Amino acid sequence: MAAEKGKEEKVLLSIRNIHKSFSLNQVLRGINLELREGEVLSLIGGNGAGKSTLMKIIMGIYQPDEGSIQIRGKQVNLSKPSVALANGIYMVPQEPMLFPNMTVEENIVIGFEEKSAELHKRLVDRMQEVGWNIDLTRKASSLSIAEQQLVEILRGLLRQAQVLILDEPTSALTFDEAESLFRCVSDLRSKGIGIIYITHRLTEVFEISTSVAIMRDGVITLSGGVEEFTKEALVRGLLPADSDKEKESKEKEAYTIDYSQEPVLELRDLSGYGFNHVSLKLYPGEILGVAGVVGAGRTELATTIFGRDKVLGGKVFLNGKDITGLSTRKVIEAGLNYVPEDRHLHGLFKIADVAVNTTSALLQEKIMGSLILNRKKEREVTQKYIDDFRIKVTGQSQLTGSLSGGNQQKIVIGRSLSTLPKVVILDEPTRGIDAGARGDVYTIIHELRKLGVSVLLISSDMEEIVELSDRVVSVFQGCINAEFQKKDINQDNLMAAAFDVKTEKEVGA
Predict the structure, then answer these.
(1) How many CA atoms lie within 13 A of 463 on its CB side?
(2) How far are the Cα atoms of 111, 113, 197 from residue 158, in angstroms, in the given order?
(3) The model scores a pTM over 0.85
(4) pLDDT digits over 345-357, tens only?
(5) pLDDT score, position 347
(6) Per-residue pLDDT band at 247 (split at 50, 70, 90)
């Protein structure tokens, strides 16, 4: 009995038979989960599986219809977020929620009652522990997504939570920043803190976790120690039953690029804010990967091509036509579209419905009508992308802001593809998307190339670049520093190029 009691005392968080429905939609159907001291529990599952709803219940944002939650063996009523915080639960959100006109330090320490000097010292000490160097006096509005994510993580670390929830914490971090986070997580484990780690990067599961649980359709379908699983087993547990990866792989291998054709997109010595003297060619049907770390200038390159930022020098040609410095609308009309990295800032009308968001890029097109909106065409286009992308919605009239992050991202991608571009720039297209949805996006990309559509793929996920690209260029400090043909595209080469490190093969040459 004593041993059993001691074991029970080590349970930080116990979730028992949690149910939750929204109208007729049953989101959670009897969730049972435990988190122990010093445990890192990786929670993975498809978009719409119920992960976000479960986390919001733990944080006191939603109330369960049925079931109970215990903290250290004591049943609690997490009626609101302040109660969850008082019970030692803190969630670092996937999408940063900062006050843009406040400084980094003000955003982190808000809500504390300690003296400013004491808080500042604690914050600096914590930053030194994890090896992060952020200017605390900067305005939050000036931060990149990666930097905003670091601020959110520091908020949680400073609050010394017993239960820390990390929702896709590395989705916008560089390799070094992610490694620092992993070291921080190990340190927190040693202090007995329990961590729920939500991720879609399966390699991270085996690097950082002690246990894993898979959610599908509102239930935990599989759980256990991480040593009981392989990556392949997790993928099989996540992918829909009708997924045909083998067929997709064969189709990919069978496709070849005709480099004797004229390039569909050509940059000649292009310079802009954050990059300099970039020259490259993109050919019909080609997927050209753009590798590099966050802050290398890849997104700035994309937004400048798209007409959102000013060209400081050089030229951009699309199908032989000079589109340098054209407005975004003119660039889209010419046949190029862009899926932005930050879907909330640049990609979505969250208070509008799914249909409006999916077809808004077509409003200037004749296909949607002139003075009168073609509602039939709107429904057809919207349904196509709902079906092709497996977007989980209750209907086309559902508000986009109520969807999970991954489903919102699919809508942003669908809207850009709805204009039938000849070139599409995808900037971190699967950020925050689960393995099953990622497969859906990859399938769409492969089908586009069969139609001669070319893709400029910007991704910090090296596996994604390797998986999809026909050719890769690496960007370092705003300049292209390497190019790789198909046979040389691997994670070792890309990682070395991203940090401008010469490989042994290059040194020997």
Answers:
(1) 11
(2) 11, 13, 18
(3) no
(4) 555 665 577 677 6
(5) 54
(6) very low
488 Cβ neighbours under 8 A, 6+ residues apart: none
Neighbours of 231 (CB within 10 A): 12
254-335+426-509 CATH pick, 3.40.50.300, 1.10.260.40, 1.10.287.3510, 3.30.70.330: 3.40.50.300
Structure token pair of residue 427:
């900037």
3-state secondary structure of 335: coil
User: Where exactly does CATH 3.40.50.300 map onto the chain?
Assistant: 2-238, 254-335+426-509
User: Hey, how many other C-beta atoms are within 10 angstroms of the C-beta on 352?
Assistant: 13
pLDDT of 359 over the 70 cut: no
- The helices-and-strands tally (H runs, E runs) of the chain is 19, 20
pLDDT digits over 269-304, tens only? 999 998 999 999 999 999 999 998 777 889 999 999
Assign domain 2-238 to its CATH architecture: 3-Layer(aba) Sandwich (3.40)
- CB-based contacts of 457: which residues, under 8 Å, 6+ apart? 287, 288, 289, 290, 426, 429, 445, 464, 465, 468, 469
Q: In what order do the strands lie in the sheet with 25-36?
A: 25-36, 11-22, 66-71, 74-76
- Strands 211-216 and 40-45 come out as parallel
Alpha-carbon distance of 379 to 391, in angstroms, equals 14
Q: To which H or E segment does residue 234 belong? A: helix 231-238
| pLDDT digits 0-9 by tens, 478-496 | 999 999 999 999 877 887 8
Q: Write out pLDDT tens, residues 389-402.
A: 777 887 777 776 77
**Strands (DSSP E) found in 226-309:** 265-272, 275-282, 287-291
* Six-digit token string for 322: 């000079």
Instruction: Give the residue carrying structure tokens 């000013």.
Output: 310
| Contacting residues for 447 by C-beta, under 8 A, at least 6 apart | none
Which range (32-36, 153-157, 372-376) has the least confidence? 372-376
* Residue 38 pLDDT greater than 80, yes or no: yes
Single-letter residue type at 216 = R
| 13: nearest Cα among 95, 68, 56 | 68
pLDDT of 245 higher than 50: no
Amino acid making up residue 426: L
Min mean pLDDT across 20-24, 403-407, 409-413 is at 403-407
Q: Where are the beta strands (DSSP E) in 226-370?
A: 265-272, 275-282, 287-291, 311-318, 321-322, 336-339
The DSSP-derived string for 161-204 is -SEEEEESTTTT--HHHHHHHHHHHHHHHHTT-EEEEE-S-HHH
* CA pair distance 334, 328, nearest whole angstrom: 10
